[in-house]
Write a sequence for this structure.
């Protein structure tokens, strides 16, 4: 091989090397672009995750408040049932007093019948009282479970 052929072969090799370097530079440039895009996407996703965590905290706080309200409403319902029971007993008592006063003039058989009716009404009131007390106990147990 002559010197010129060697120079030409060396030049071809240098051209191939220069082309390989250019391709490598392009690959590096593309890699930097992909890395930049990935970093931008990752930053956006990190911010989105932060917002999601804040929303979850807010939802959890709202759920706690709702549970407190449900418990308070349950207590109010139990109190209302107790008051209703007392009102029923008072009404039965007033009815009993009225019946006794009206039949108070003749004591004989009428008084006995009135007394029996009053006793029956009082027994009904006591039964209603027991049923309402059971319902109140059930509601209290449900509230305590929550």
């Amino acid at each position: 091989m002559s010197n010129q052929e060697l120079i030409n072969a060396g030049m071809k090799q240098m051209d191939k090397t220069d082309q390989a370097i250019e391709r490598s530079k392009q690959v590096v440039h593309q890699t930097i672009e992909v890395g930049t895009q990935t970093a931008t996407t990752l930053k956006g996703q990190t911010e989105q995750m932060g917002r999601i965590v804040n929303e979850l905290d807010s939802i959890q706080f709202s759920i706690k408040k709702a549970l407190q309200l449900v418990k308070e409403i349950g207590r109010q319902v139990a109190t209302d049932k107790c008051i209703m029971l007392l009102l029923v007993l008072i009404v039965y008592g007033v009815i009993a007093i009225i019946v006794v006063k009206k039949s108070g003039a003749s004591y004989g058989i009428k008084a006995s019948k009135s007394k029996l009716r009053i006793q029956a009404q009082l027994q009904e009131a006591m039964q209603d009282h027991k049923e309402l007390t059971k319902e109140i106990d059930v509601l209290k147990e449900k509230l305590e479970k929550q």
